[in-house]
Amino acid sequence: MFHKERMIALKNFYLTTPIYYPSDNLHIGHTYTTVAADTIKRYKKLQGYDVFFTTGSDEHGQKIQEKAAQAGMSPQAYVDKIVADIKVLWNMLEIDYDSFIRSTDPKHEKAIADIFKKLYDKGEIYKDQYEGAYCTPCESFWSDSQLVDGNKCPDCGRETHLAKEEAYFFRLSKYRDKLLKLYEDNPEFIQPESRKNEMINNFLKDGLDDLSVSRSSFDWGIKVPFDEKHVVYVWIDALSCYLTALGYGTEDEANFNKFWPADVHLVGKEIVRFHTIIWPAILMALDLPLPKKVFGHGWILFEDDKMSKSKGNVIYPEPIIELYGIDAFKYFLMREFSFGQDGSFSREKFLQRLNSDLANDLGNLVSRTVSMIEKYNGGILPSPKAVEELDQTLITQATETAGKVEELMDKLNFSNALEEIWKLIRRTNKYVDETMPWILARDGNTERLDTVLYNLSESLRIVSILIQPFMVRTSDEIRKQLGVEGAVNWEDAKTWGFLKEGTKLQKGGIIFPRLDIKVELERLNTANNKLIEKRTGARKETKSEEKKPEAPVEVEPVEEITIDDFAKVQLKVAKVIACEDHPKADKLLVLTLKVGEETRTVVSGIKQWYKAEDLVGKKVIVVANLKPVKLRGVESRGMIMAAEDADGNLTLLSTLEDIADGSSIS
Ligand code: MSP
């Protein structure tokens, strides 16, 4: 079918997810935003839009620098590994993104330096003293509202004191009234509505302070181009990814010109503030158009609690996908939770929906429709002949569902949109019960039987289009079984009578088998725990466990280096002359090393394995020419070397015989 609409020039649509911190592997919460964005992209594409979808990784900042140091890696190597895992996850889920922007991409870094300079030149950014309550061990300034017990640091509980630090500031305060006007003139700008009220009452009502937009206490960031002691505040760096993903500030700005401003930024509720206050103000300062909408969705909780690695309640998507496929998983995410609100994840709820909505409702409709056509008509689609009043109710509902879904999708109400589609699926199943094709067949009422079979197939074809943005594979599979492969578009879901008499159907397997919930709960739990163990390096006690058969050894591909590459690394023998716990971090020790004539401090994440006092007097191996980094306020110059076995046990390296500290290793 050819549609007039398709001849009209394509409309553009730009949407984004947050760019995630690659400090740890992503969990079901991050997946939620990305799956929602993917769903919107597919929906808009079906409607004929030209869509650009950006996601990515937010790789700078103190937290990442510290995490990397704890893992004994450079920040870049650390994030590279996690970003690779993130991309594998998005591939697994068949996320149809157009740009994966990394904030360490040199093009992005250059554009940010230019943006900073431009804002400085325009007088939007100025240099001043930052004055506030300062915690020396944590090297952090805290605002009055963050302090605890009077003037104590919320992180370590120690007394803070008033201090000053040089920093660059963005004139955020001058945008307060403009932001209020923006919200008033564009009621859709912040969604849901309640989040807008939060922004006004909690942040804008009493005025805005200028924003400190540079840091000098750590260096893992984009350097301020005209003052390299400072790095750009991570949120300025990160938010601007939405522009640089489109090539803004590079030699090729075609996508920027085509797609900016964004139609929607999808974000979790905790970062709405950055997207609706700081971001529009920065864009106004740059004289750039503002995004049309920021949607702050709710959180996925686990047993009503926030997921966190330390609580051990993180749900990873990979085991669910591996066991039940991507469509069941995506369907659940979009159906179970109301997008604007928090919701609690449970494996039971997931399995129940799989059984009721997917196996019973949709799976059953597909298999009974195709089976009956096979049985009663040799697998060939008949034409409708004897129409009854009842048919019209089905036809009306089927052709009107797309319109209802549109209204809900435009509000990003995925859950109710799916509910509308499922009403049609359940209505169609009921139609089978009402018309009883097996009785029509028994009685030789072929005209009526043909009509019923045709109507069932048509309704299913419409369903296959409506679910396409959510479940591409299932949608394709249904159309394959109906014998109507090929491209579809949204308008086809509003038209009845698309299927052609004589089409050969192709009966396939069961699309969603019914599951035994008890058995599956066990499987899911085990698979998630296994992955948590693998990712945290933690190993459970195996004493009472039976010895498992040995798994085949996986050999990681190794990148070969030349002797010249190796020669760049300066390894030296060092003697530990003092060692103490890091005042601020749980996992770190601060070692004072004597390396020949020189004394240096190295911070190392080995506290789990060594007591500070046990190390004094020992000789260790240090990577002596590693770029210094500050870890929670302590400068670390070099890295001491350790070996780790498959069970995560760690031991420091030393030499076989005693040798003078300062000796070179080659
Ligand atoms: N790097 C910043 C975002 C910069 S955007 C310019 C960041 N990253 S993050 O890795 O912490 O990701 C936060 C986002 O992940 C949330 O805003 C939300 O989209 C998603 N989620 C993370 N945990 C979540 C839940 N438990 N539930 C739902 N979504 C949550 O913030």
Describe the overall structure:
This protein is α/β, with parallel strands linked by helices. It has a 6-stranded parallel β-sheet, with helices on both faces. Strands 15, 16, 17, 18, 21 and 24 form a 6-stranded antiparallel β-sheet that branches. A 4-stranded antiparallel β-sheet has the order 5-4-6-8. Helix 15 runs antiparallel to helix 17 and helix 17 packs antiparallel against helix 18. The N and C termini lie far apart (72 Å). The N terminus is likely disordered.
Topology of helices and strands:
Elements: E1 12-20, H1 28-46, E2 50-57, H2 62-70, H3 75-92, E3 99-102, H4 106-121, E4 125-135, E5 140-142, E6 161-170, H5 176-185, E7 190-191, H6 193-204, E8 211-212, E9 214-215, E10 231-232, H7 234-239, H8 241-244, H9 254-259, E11 264-268, H10 272-285, E12 294-297, E13 300-302, H11 317-324, H12 326-336, E14 343-345, H13 347-377, H14 389-410, H15 414-435, H16 437-442, H17 446-466, H18 472-482, H19 517-536, H20 563-567, E15 571-581, E16 589-595, E17 598-604, H21 612-615, E18 619-623, E19 629-631, E20 634-636, E21 639-640, E22 642-644, E23 650-652, E24 664-665
Parallel strand pairs: 1-2, 1-11, 2-3, 7-12, 11-12, 13-14
Antiparallel strand pairs: 4-5, 4-6, 6-8, 9-10, 15-16, 15-18, 15-24, 16-17, 18-21, 19-20, 22-23
The structure holds 5'-O-[(L-methionyl)-sulphamoyl]adenosine.
